[in-house]
Amino acid sequence: MRTSLNIPQEVLDSFDEAWKAEGLESRSRAAREAIQEYTERHTQLEEIEGEVTAAVAFDYEHTLVIGDLHTLQHEFEDIIGSTHHQHHGEWCLETVFCNGTALRVRELVYQLRDFDAVGRVNVMFLQQTEHANCSN
């Protein structure tokens, strides 16, 4: 199946450099692998259940989203125990440490990923109870 995507040129340039450096035969092959990896991470995140402890790290363009991020963090104060923030020019790196249900952590991750000014969101589950069945 053929498809079309809108990707910023600098992201596409970096992607092309990466797959070529790995010796893959085409951009299509690299894109298929990237989509598969994304799908696997999503599936793992969806399968985790029960009470969890997690670190959610994300980067963002400070001036475009800081107010909305503060509001979101207050909406999730029931699971966010602490945060760590690092400035780097207009971009920031933040990690929020969470204790609560896997469902609430997922909700936080998905809402963070919905902001255009947030670049990446990664979650690591540090500890799980016997009810949790997968790590990410």
Automatic annotation (TrEMBL):
<dbReference type="InterPro" id="IPR010985">
    <property type="entry name" value="Ribbon_hlx_hlx"/>
</dbReference>
<dbReference type="InterPro" id="IPR002145">
    <property type="entry name" value="CopG"/>
</dbReference>
<dbReference type="InterPro" id="IPR014864">
    <property type="entry name" value="TF_NikR_Ni-bd_C"/>
</dbReference>
<dbReference type="InterPro" id="IPR027271">
    <property type="entry name" value="Acetolactate_synth/TF_NikR_C"/>
</dbReference>
<dbReference type="Pfam" id="PF08753">
    <property type="entry name" value="NikR_C"/>
</dbReference>
<dbReference type="Pfam" id="PF01402">
    <property type="entry name" value="RHH_1"/>
</dbReference>
<dbReference type="InterPro" id="IPR045865">
    <property type="entry name" value="ACT-like_dom_sf"/>
</dbReference>
<keyword id="KW-0238">DNA-binding</keyword>
<feature type="domain" description="Ribbon-helix-helix protein CopG">
    <location>
        <begin position="1"/>
        <end position="41"/>
    </location>
</feature>
<feature type="domain" description="Transcription factor NikR nickel binding C-terminal">
    <location>
        <begin position="55"/>
        <end position="124"/>
    </location>
</feature>
<keyword id="KW-0804">Transcription</keyword>
<keyword id="KW-0175">Coiled coil</keyword>
<dbReference type="GO" id="GO:0006355">
    <property type="term" value="P:regulation of DNA-templated transcription"/>
</dbReference>
<protein>
    <submittedName>
        <fullName>Transcriptional regulator</fullName>
    </submittedName>
</protein>
<keyword id="KW-0805">Transcription regulation</keyword>
<dbReference type="GO" id="GO:0003677">
    <property type="term" value="F:DNA binding"/>
</dbReference>
<feature type="coiled-coil region">
    <location>
        <begin position="21"/>
        <end position="48"/>
    </location>
</feature>
<dbReference type="InterPro" id="IPR050192">
    <property type="entry name" value="CopG/NikR_regulator"/>
</dbReference>
<dbReference type="InterPro" id="IPR013321">
    <property type="entry name" value="Arc_rbn_hlx_hlx"/>
</dbReference>
<comment type="similarity">
    <text>Belongs to the transcriptional regulatory CopG/NikR family.</text>
</comment>
